[in-house]
Amino acid sequence: MNKKAVIVFSGGQDSTTCLIHALPMYDEVHCLTFDYGQRHRAEIDVAQQLSKRLGVKVHKVLDTSLLNELAVSSLTRDNIPIARSTRAGVPATFVPGRNILFLTLASIYAYQVGAEAVITGVSEAESSGYPDCSDEFVSVLNDAVKLGMDYNLRIEAPLMWLNKAETWALAEYHNQFELVRYHTLTCYNGVMGSGCGDCDACGLRSGGLSRFLQGRAEAMDHMKFKLGL
Predict the structure, then answer these.
(1) 28 has which bridge partners?
(2) How confident is the model at residue 39 (pLDDT cuts 50, 70, 90)?
């Protein structure tokens, strides 16, 4: 049986690491990138370049610009500063409904192509505190998708319990550390590699990289234990 997976792919550190991790596990991997008019839409070109470089045969960019009209965020509105926080400490970069929409669309696509899994790079262990990156959210949405489509689909989040140092370790485990370090785009201001150094995404990325470089062996061991490698 041909094993297929669909990856929600932004071209950032996390989704690229998920793609690298998934490629040896599946016979066929499809990448989905979403164009919602995001402030850092340079990530779309980066995602396309990376998927080609990694040998992905099917990569679709879906127009989800309706999200830009509905969801108010510093990633959808240029007049909202990226560094500012909103209610209850949720960052201004939180795009309400984004992962609900992306994972639902990816699940519909998976149904159509007969994929057994949708893979996303969200993490609860170390993130910006977005509510739609939690294990509970992914689990509940997975149940709803299976019920609503009568289709036994898994929504997988392999980075869920990894911190950023361990995510770097996973890239190194697959011999793609340099690719992830220099050719991915995580920055909310659209700066490749190390990024702008000011936004929250860059802070998480650089902090994790520093910890990884200071303790590679420990991060690798923890990552392998958490993922059962």
Answers:
(1) 4
(2) confident
